[in-house]
Fold this protein.
Amino acid sequence: MSEKQDPTAPSQSSRESESQNVQPSESQNGQPEGTNADSTTAEVGREAQPADADQEELGEAGDALYPLTIHLPHEPSSIHVMVSPQEQVHELRQSVIELPSAFQYSCFHLEHAGKRINDFVQISDVEGLGPDAEIRLVEDPYTEKDARLHVIRIRDLVGAAGDRTDTLHGVLPGVSLFDGVTTSAKDTDNVQASAFDFDAPAKPFTLIPGEEEPAPKTVKSIALSSWNPPPYHFRQKGHLLYLLVTTNEGEQHQVTSHVGGFYVNKSSNSKFDPLPRAAPKGQSAHSLFTLLGLISPSFSGFFEQLLQYNNRKDPLATFHLTNAVPSAPWLVPSQSSPLCAHTADITRTQEGYLISGVDNTDTLRDWNEEFQSARELPKETVQDRVFRERFISKLFADYTDAAARGAILVARDEVTPLNPTEGRDAQIFVYNNVFFSFGADGVGTFTSEGGDDAARVATGKDVNGVRIVNQLDIDGLYSPATVVVDYLGKRIVGQTVVPGIFKQREPGENSIEYGAVEGKEIVAADERFAPTFAKLSKALKVKKHAVWDKDGKRWDLEASVETKGLMGTDGRKYVLDLYRITPLDVLWLEENESVEGASKDLEYPHRMTVLRPELVELLRNQKWTEWINKEVARLKEKHQAKVKDEQTMEGEKASSGEEKAATEDKTDESKEEADESKEETDDSKEEGKEVVAEERIDASEFEFSLNPDVFSGQVPQTEAEKEEWAADEEDVRNACKYLRESSIPEFVNDIKAADLPFPMDGQSLTKMMHKRGINIRYLGKVVSLCDGPRLLRLRDLCLQEIISRAFKHVAGKYLRYLPIPLTSACIAHLLNCLLGFGLNSKPTADIDESLKALYPEVDLAFANVTPESLREEIEAQALRRFKFTLDSEWYNQIKHLQLLREVSLKLGLQLQVKNFQFTSNSSAPAPATNGVNGHTNGDSKESKKKKKKAREASPASVASSTSVPSTFTPDDVVNVVPIIKDSAPKSAISEEALEGGRHSIMNNNRKIGQELLLESLTLHEQIYGILHPEVARAYSTLAQIYYQLEEKDAAVDLSKKAVIVAERTLGVDSAETLLYYLNLGLYVHGSGDSKTALAYVKHALDLWKIIYGPDHPDSITTLNNAAVMLQHMQAYHESRIWFEQALAVCERVVGKQSLPAASLLFQLAQALALDNESKAALGKMRDCYNIFLQQLGPENNNTKEAETWLEQLTQNAVAIAKRDKDAQARRLRAGIRFPARNVALGGGAGSGGAANQPSALSQPKSDKPDARSIDDLIKFIEGNTAQQKKSSTKQRAGRGGPNTRVAASASAK
C-alpha cells in the first residue's frame, strides 16, 4: 500500500509530513489508498454560478480540471493526470504515486521547463503551468529517512506487512460487512430473496464478516538485516540501511539501501560484505519495488494477482483510516479464526525504528504550537478557509490518536509520573508532549461539589466546552486541545501543554489571570482578557456579572468564575476549565437536597448538574420569538393609535372616501416597512405574520443571557446586588422549569406522534435527548411520562439505558485499581451476575491463582459479588443518579443480548462471538436472546442444527475451574478498547455549501443547487478525508437529495459509500449504519434491482434484532416497504407474508384499532387478493373499513376508498362462492366427492380464481351489482363463521416508503 500521507492532511514540511503522521499501513495487502482516487467529485468540473455572495465564494473554490503529462524515468515513459489549479503540488505527487504505473516512486521531485517545482505551492502558482503542460519526474538521492519510509511503503504495497502492532484500536477495527451482504444477494432467486425468519432470535454472528481466502503472497518477507545499521565508514560511502529479502522461490538476498537506490550485496548470514554483488545475481534499481521484480521471477505475476484480489472489495472498505478513530466491534471472532490470524513477521518489531528513526524523534511534535499556529492561519478567502479547516481536522485526528495511545499507557502504569510522591489520583504525566491527569479529585478541588464523581463529570463537560469554543473560533482566544479517555474504570484527560503552565511562580504570584485562582477564595480579573471573554460569553449566552472573593470584594467577570484565563509564555490568551459555561440545574439540586436527611446513599453523587448548552439555545430561540411577537403587537398598536389621531384631526376637512384612501396608503407603506423589518430579523419564526408598523424592529434591543454562577455559593453584599442576583436566579429557575415543563414532555410527545424517529438503542436515545437539551439524569422523568403501547417501548429503552449506565458505574468501581491481567476475570464475573444468572444462579469468579499470587495487595472485592448484591448496587445507582426506583423483578424483564451490547459499548468490551446462553434451557438459545413480549423461538430443525454446530465450534461456555457452566468466561473477554471523547470542531465551510445547495434546490435553482452540493461533497472529503463519520452523513444527505431529484444512480452510489464509511467509523451495528442500509435498499429498489434491495433490508432487520430486539416501531415501515418490493418482483404470495408481519407488529405496538393498522389492513387486503385469497382479502378490507369509519367518519376519502374496495371485493367473492357451489353441486350429481376448499386462509388458488391478474380485482364478476347488503353477502361467503384472527404488527403514520397504497391514511387525522 502506498505509504501515504492522507491528502486531506496539509503538510508542514515536505519530508516531515510524510513521517509525522505515518500510520504506516495505509491499507493492508497492497491496495493503494487515496482520498483523491475515490473522490466522488474527482472528475467534476465545478463552475458554479451561485445565487448569492457566500455561495459565489464557495463556487469559486474549485475551478475546472485540466490534463497534465508527466514524463517518467522508466516504463511507461509518460502518464496523464487531471489536476485542479487549486491543488497543491504535494497533492499531485500523491496522486502520481497511487497510479499503478508509478507505484515504484517515492523519492523524487517534479520539474517544469527545467526548473524544480516546490512541493508546497499551488499548481496555479507555478509559472507557465497550464492545460496540457509537461512535467518531468526526477528521481532524487535517498536520505536515511527517505529509505526507511520507502521500505515501509513497499512492504505495504506488495502485501508483505502482515498484521500491525496496535495498542489502541482493538480487534478488527474499522471492519465492513457491506461487500459480504451485497455478494449474498447475487446468487438468490425470488423465493430465497423473500425468505426471512421473523420469529428467529437475534444471531450474534451477523456482526462477523465472512472468512475469505488469504491474499496472494508476492514475497515471503522484507526485513531489516541483522547487519543493520551500517558502520561509520560505510555510512560515509552513502550506505543507509541493510535489508534481508526472502523471495517466493525461497532465496535470501541481502540488500544494501544506498543514497543512489537499492542493490543486492555480497553479505550472507555469517559474512558481512555490503558491496554490490557481481552478475548474474547482482541486481540494482532506484526503487526496491523494481529490484524485487528483478530478483524474483514470480513477483510480477503474484503482484498482479494481489491487485486483482484487492479490487474485489470496494476501495473504501480497504483504505486505512487516518482522520477518524475506527470503530471497534463489540463482538469479534475467536482467535483461531483466519480473520484474527497472527502471522510471523520480524519486521513488525522493527517498524518503530523504520517509522521514527533510531532516536524516536521523527514523531515527537509540539502539539500546542501546531494547534495555535493553525488557528492563526488566514481565513479571508475560501481557499484559505479550506486549507485551514483541513489542517485543523488532520491535526485533531493525529492528536486524538496520540493522546489515546498515551492514555492507555498511563492507565497501564507504563509512564512515570511527574509527581510520584503524590497520591495515585493526583499524579500527572507528560508523554509524547501530551499532559495527562486523572478525571478524579486527587487534590481536593471538588470536595464541596462531590469529589471524584464531580471531577469525572467536570472533565466530560470541559471537553464539550472546549469543542464549543473551537467551533466558535474566536480570534485571539486559544484553548488547549483536550481528549478524555475512559478505560477500565479510569478516566484520563489528555491536554496539550500550555506554555508557562508548569512555570514556577514567585510567592503571591498566580498563573491564573482571569477567574477563580484558588477555589473561589481569590479572584483575578486582568482587563486584557475582558474583550475576548466578552465575545465568548456573548456567543454562549453568558451574562456579565459580579462575583465576590473571600473578603467580600466585588469583581465583574464576563464568564463564570470557574472559567479561567491564563496568559501563556508565548503571549497567547488561553481559556481553561470550560465545565461551567451554563448555569446549574437548581431545581434538580433542590429536589436532591430535600432528601438529604434520609440517607447519604440516596444523595445525587455531585453538584455539577449544569444545564446543557442546547437547552440554553432552545430557550433563547423561544424568548426571541416571544419578543418579536410583542414588538410587532406594540408597533401595530402604536400605528393604529397614530392613524386614529390623524383621522380625528382631519375628520372635519376630509370626506370619508378620502380618509379611506389615506388609511389604505398608510397601511401599504407600513406593510412595506414591516417587510423590511422582517428581513432585519430573519431569525424570527413569525415571518409569515403581517406586521403593520411604521418603524423597523431593532434586533439589537433583544437580550438573553444567563448568569452561570447563581446558586453556587456567591454572596452579594449590597441590597442592589442582592436584587440583581435574585433576578438572575429567577431567570435560571425559569430555564430549569422550561426543561421540565416544555422540553421533556415535548420530546416524549414528538416520539409518541412519530414526529421524531423512534430511538433504537442507548446511543441514539442519548443523542436525541441531548439535541433537545435534556440531560441523561432525566431518564427517570422520561420513563414516568411514557404511557400507551408505542411509548411502552420507549419506556423499556430508557430502563435499559438506566440499567446499563448504573452497571457501568458499578463495574468501573471494581475495575479502577485492578491490574490489567485480572480485569477479564472481573468483567466475566460481573456479566455473569448481571445476565447469566438464568444459567448459573451462583456464579463464581474464575481467577487464575498464579496471577492472583503476583498481586497480593490487590483488592479482589469483585469476587464477592453475587447476582443479588449486584442488583442491589444497580438499584442504588439508578435511585441516586436517575431518581428512579427499578421494579423488584427488573432483572427478569431485561433483553439479554441488547443489554449486553449496551454494556459492552459503554465499557469498550470486545467479546468473543458465540450464541450466548442466558438460561438453562439447553436445547436452543434462550428466547430472551431476542427480547421481551413473550416472543418464542421460531427455529426450524435445520437452523437449530446450524446453531448447535456454531456453538460447538466456539469455545465452550463452561468455566475451566468450575463444574457448573457459566454464560461468560474470562477467555470470552478478548480485549477492552478505550472510549474516546475529543474536542474537534466540525467544518463550517462544508456545512455552508451543503446548506447553500439545499436552499437553492428548494428555491428551484436546481443547476446551482447541484453544483453547490458537489462542492460541499468535495469540501467534506478534502477537509475530513473520506473515512470520517461526518462524510458518511454528508453522503447520506446528498443521496437523499439526489434521489428526490430523480438522479437515482448517483443516489445509490453515494448511499453505498455512506454505508461503508458508517460501518467503519460508527460501527457495523450502529443505529446510523442500520438507517443507511434501509435508505440504500429504497434507492436500489428505485433503480430497479429489488432483489439486492431486499438483501439490504434483511440485513438491516437482522441488525435490528441485535440492536433493539423484536417489534421496533419503525420496523413496520421497513416490513411494509419490503412487501411492496416483493410485489414489484411479482412475488405476490411472499409479499403477502411480509404485509402480514408488518400488520402483526403494528397491532402489537400501536394497537389494533389504530389508523396505521387500518392502512396496513388495506394493503394486506390487496396483497391477499393478488395472492388469490379473495375471502381473506374481504375480511381484512372490512376490518380496515370499520377502523376508518370509526376514526375518520364516513365522509373521509380513506373511508370512501376502503368502502369502494370492499364492494368490489365482495362482488368478486360472491361470484367465486357461487361458482364453487355450482361446481360442487355438479360433482355431487355426478357422484364425485371433493374435499371442501381450505378456508383457513380464506380459500386457495382455485381454478379461475378472482385474482389471476391484478386487473380482475376491480371488476365485479356479475353484470349487475348484487342487491344484498354487505353483511348478508359476507354471511353468504363465510357461512356465518367468524374469521380467523391473525397475529399482528404496527406501522408508523405517514410512511415515506415506496408506493404504499394508502400513504395518506395515517396522516389524515
The chain has a mean pLDDT of 83. The chain has 40 helices and 24 strands.
